[in-house]
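Please predict the structure of the following assembly.
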Amino acid sequence: MGDRYNIHSQLEHLQSKYVGTGHADTSKWEWSSNIHRDTYASYLGHFDMLNHIALCENESKARVRFQLLKRMIQPCGPPHEKMDES
Amino acid sequence: MSSKHDAIEAQSKAMRDERRREDDEARGTRFGDQILDTDVYEENARTGYFNYVPGNNDDDDEDDDYASSLPNVKPKAYGPTADILQNIPNIDRNYDPLAEHRRPTIADRENEYQKKRRMIPGRISPERLDYFAEGGKTPDPQAKGRSYAEIMGEIAIRNAKTDTRNQLAERAKAAEGQSSTTANGGASASGEKRRRRWDQTAPADDNDPKAKKIAYDEAVTPAHRMWDATPAPGQSSFDETPVASRTPGAETPHHSATPSNKRNRWDETPRTERETTNSGWAETPKTDRGGMDDVDYIIRSTPTPSTDKRRSRWDETPANATTNGGSFTPVAKEIGVASTPRTSGSFTPGMTPIIATPVGTRAANMATPTPSQIPMTPEQMQAYRWEREIDERNRPLSDEELDAMFPPGYKILPPPASYIPIRTPARKLTATPTPQSTFSGFHIQESAHGQSAQSNQLQEYQPSGNLPLLKPDDLQYFDKLLQEVDEESLTPEEQKERKIMKLLLKIKNGTPPMRKAALRQITDKAREFGAGPLFNQILPLLMSPTLEDQERHLLVKVIDRILYKLDDLVRPYVHKICVVIEPLLIDEDYYARVEGREIISNLAKAAGLATMISTMRPDIDNLDEYVRNTTARAFAVVASALGIPALLPFLKAVCKSKKSWQARHTGIKIIQQIAILLGCAILPHLKSLVEIIEHGLIDEQQKVRTITALGIAALAEAAAPYGIESFDTVLKPLWNGIKQHRGKGLAAFLKAIGYLIPLMDAEYACYYTREVMIILIREFQSPDEEMKKIVLKVVKQCTATDGVEAKYIKEEVLPSFFKYFWNQRMALDRRNYRQLVDTTVEMANKVGSSEIINRIVDDLKDESEQYRKMVIETIEKIMTNLGSADIDSRLEEQLIDGILYAFQEQTTEDTVMLNGFGAVVNSLGKRCKAYLPQICGTILWRLNNKAAKVRQQAADLIQKIANVMKLCSEEKLMGQLGLVLYEYLGEEYPEVLGSILGALKGIVNVIGMTNMTPPIKDLLPRLTPILKNRHEKVQENCIDLVGRIAELGAEHVPAREWMRICFELLELLKAHKKSIRRAAINTFGYIAKAIGPHDVLATLLNNLKVQERQLRVCTTVAIAIVSETCSPFTVLPGLMNEYRVPELNVQNGVLKALAFMFEYIGEMSKDYIYAVTPLLEDAMMDRDLVHRQTAMTAIGHMSLGVFGFGCEDALCHLLNHVWPNIFETSPHVIQAFISAIEGLRVGLGPGRVLYYTLQGLFHPARRVRDVYWKVYNTLYIGAQDTLVTGYPRIVDDNIRPTIDENESLQKRIEKPRNDYARYELDYII
């Protein structure tokens, strides 16, 4: 019991170790960037999704995969300069 | 059946009769014989009796000279009179009955070596310059810190001084030897000295030429040293300067009385009394605090015998005694003359005198000086506390008390004009008991005024304000808090000091909340307070001789916290902290060592490597081994904190030091410690580490060579099994070394090789083993214990390597190994014993079990019991490892024979024999069949033994061999044993009873319920009353047995009996031991299964009403288990009905039982979810927090269970009730909420929960966002991939970013320009 309680009290710290988690000051841009990356990762990971997209875009699978990977860098464009203060 | 029973009965009766006869014979009271006193009592037993009536206090009356100055009565002490005490034979007067309940101080358990730091005055080093402050500018020479050059100079001087002193000492010793042979003929110098001490007419020492010669150290008496120009504060420490009292001059104080004189004892009182407290350097010793400027510091830290040798007699000037806190004046005669402190100056100020101050009743006779601010030893403290309590009880009656006591009509007379009240406090103390002693008999203290008076008394010594109580030992550190001062009038410095003091006191003695607040405050304000004032107060506290573990832990924690805050400010104090913390590194307490390491590593991080090196560098070639040892360990910690590579250049330089071998020694020791501390983390740097120390193997100094070998051993051990290539360069010197060295050096070299061989590949290992084995075999004969241990260890390591062949070991090693090691002497030392057993087992792994066992099996009949034990333990380990396939029938016979012999002959019953026996029998298995009757005979005989231990052991053995008996199909024998055990259930020793129950359990387990004799229906009713037994072992074994019967053979027992057991089981739920509670709960399940859940459930539900939480929790678990074993539908209706009882505990219990039930039944939940939803819904709407919390836990478990069964409608309904609890603050509720959400995430799918979460992620209130993000994160980590389909469509920011220089900033921010849509989703929709 004590153990579990401790883990919960440190839950936030634990969670912050994972990429993609957020906190009260997470901005829209950061959050949606993460969403996009997760989405791309999911497409890449699920074989059928990749096939489907390739079919729709009439591209080779390798190219679609490459495109998706490339888009992970800044999926939602550059951040606002003053993002922190907004 | 009955005939068998009768046979057993007859047998055990015969045994009992025989035993009785034996007993009788031993006592000599045979029936019908004449019984004489001398038969019963020993012939000369009366010599122990008193043959006189206790005299009329003949020689104790004059005990108290001061008593005659008091009016006619002698103060009575509590407890037995002196007569009785005098005449009790063999009573240890120093025995302190409370000793074991007293919390031990750290100082108490330190050994000689560790005490070193306390014996040395003023070890806390003064501030040093910070070279790295202000970007490495040359520090101001006027600064008060000491520079590196100064310190190195001091150390050089000190070392030179010590050298000279040692030389002088040696010369003096030589001279002493000479004088004793020449001058006085027979009288040796020491005899001279002793005689002089007692001889009343001894001439003054100065006239004695011989004494001059002996007292070589008079040249350096502290009195002179004090004026020594060298400003070496605290450093004088490390040398072995003889303390003043050791000089003969100090040992011949004025003696005026003859030994026969009764007044003699007064002469043993401290003769060197300090006349005044303010006589400069003879000031009350006090642990230094605050400004430690050098001059003042030396003066205080120098032990000085004071010159005033006036006799202190209490009847003369009691007032004087108050200034002399260091020495108590014992009054009672029983206080040994030798135990009187001689000169208070002979003790290190503030440190513990080695003399035991009388405690307990003897202390009652002592008057204590009023508590002035002087350091007290723990013993003194104890005496002081005790004494204060006695004073409290003996305090004179107050006017009110007298009023209450006398009938009306009395009046108070004015005191006569000539009366002068006693003003001296010490006398007052002795005078107080008078009224008490006038009436004798029993007297009950009236608590009311007792308490008020006590609190008054305490108040005197307690600080005002909201501060925790001071312990008497704290006085010296916190005395300033006792003075009432106006804080405003103090200088800022003093205010700060006072503030820190208060905080420290709160941390040290305060309640947890108080401590927590103070700790936070001191951490927050650390930089404001500054490093100096903080450490000047904390560090002396840490050095206090009365410090306890808990207090040390707290103070260390304070240092730890403030280090973070102070960061580089700490630099001037690094050495100071090191001096205090380093001893923790060699503390025997593991946690102390860990704390020490933590502090030093934080210190290293805060102060930086350069500071650490420059501070500790001077200690590396210190002459004192203690300092070098601790420094080496500290350096190893620094290396682990800052990384080995950072320290490598420094270590290289140190290990190559040409100036002193001590530096090389310490450097190599640092590397050894690094290896021990870091383990395999040294591997990347292994090569450089070995290179740094390898030249030490051929150093000219023996000690350096030894430590180098040890260092290599440590490195090899840490690196195992890798890194042999790094050691290539040292192999040759090591092998040369073992051929050249002898004794200790050789031991170290062998150790290094022993650790290296396992790293080598098989071929090399074989070669090197052969090489080293020659030396090892030669050293088998070494008488040195240390060598023996190392040789054994190396042999073990060599044998374990692959390359070594069994044949080689068999032929070359075994003969001499057994010749030199397998003897009785090796069994005596615990460590040798261990090592020998381990090595032999390792050899057996190589050469096979029969080879070894053959050699030692005859020793099972050796006359030394310890040796037999060693043999048994070895055989046990070998046979557990290797089995018995190797053992032929002859050896088997010898083995059983020997073990039976050893088992029967044992005098101290312990587990070694038992385990050995059990292991051998179990290993032989079926082959035991022939011996089982004999073994059982032994067991039966021993079950009938007088000694409880023997019976217990016999029962334990049955449990161990029950399996084998079954294997040999000796059911009949087991039945007999079962019956005998059954008869012994009346056993009165709980330990034995527990074992008997365990044995029965063992038999029942293998024989089965139906075949059991006695039949279960007879056995169980006998067990029911035993369940009441409060002994843990009995409880545990009994409940196990009952549980086993309930599980497998419940039908043998009527339901009524089971119900009775149910009630007993409820009591067992109170047990402290978890395994008992668990067994009890499981038993509920079995019983419920056997007799149906209704009665059991009724009992359990009733039990929910009790107050005790543990009981209720266990009951809920039991209910859950019952419902699991008997299907929930039998239990749920009753349980849900119970929820209607309008009582909080019951309702919570029901919810909790539901939670456990859903946890246990898993998928079965799908059948019950709709049934319980209304109940949970109701619970979720309750005002009571615990209701909701428990309901949420239940929901969490339930939704996990129903995953995939299409119960989303109910779950969603419940989620709507759970969700509002998101804003709860109690940690338990939060936990329950999170677990419910996690469960619902699985049961309901993360998408659904995500939509609940989205509403708050970007809420304007931070508090809302905080918790919503937390929930989101839980979701995200749990179901990252699944969430992809669930994310909302986020509206694009349409306009592409065009950065226009001329555009205003405001506009740019307003301009949305990001692309948030996930277009690919459109392909799907």
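Confidence is low (pLDDT under 50) at residues 28-77, 181-374, 425-441, 445-458 of chain B. The two ends of chain B are 83 Å apart (CA to CA).
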